[in-house]
Amino acid sequence: MAALAALPYAIAEFAKLAGLTSIASLGTAKAIDTIRNYAKANPEKSKELISLLNPGIIKDFEVLSAFWKKYQNPFEPYLKKGYNSYLKANGQAMGIESYNAMVALVIAHSEVNNYSIDKL
User: Fold this and answer.
1) Residue 53 Ramachandran class (φ > 0 left, ψ -120 to 50 alpha, else beta)
2) Residues of the chain with pLDDT under 50
3) Which of 48, 56, 63, 119 is most buried, taking the most CB atoms under 10 A from its CB?
């Protein structure tokens, strides 16, 4: 449970390094999704930022990941596959990945234009 209590700090540290200053205000689940999307959109930069993090923060993320893995829905891959097919059948060529692409675009746009979510 100590890792769960430290998570907001870990999120804030990565966000500070990545220039995502308001990520902590999104809530834990959305902040983790945002970090995951940032890492997908910027893999090299993410590796560089992770190397700058304190080893204790990385350990907190590992413990948190193990904690949530216990509660993983075994049907989620099937639900995602069905929803992905539904989106593609309705004109979303990228399917479920269109959500990740949109988040990546918003993050990239905010970096280029140097604004924060707090100002929106």
Assistant:
1) beta
2) 1-6
3) 63
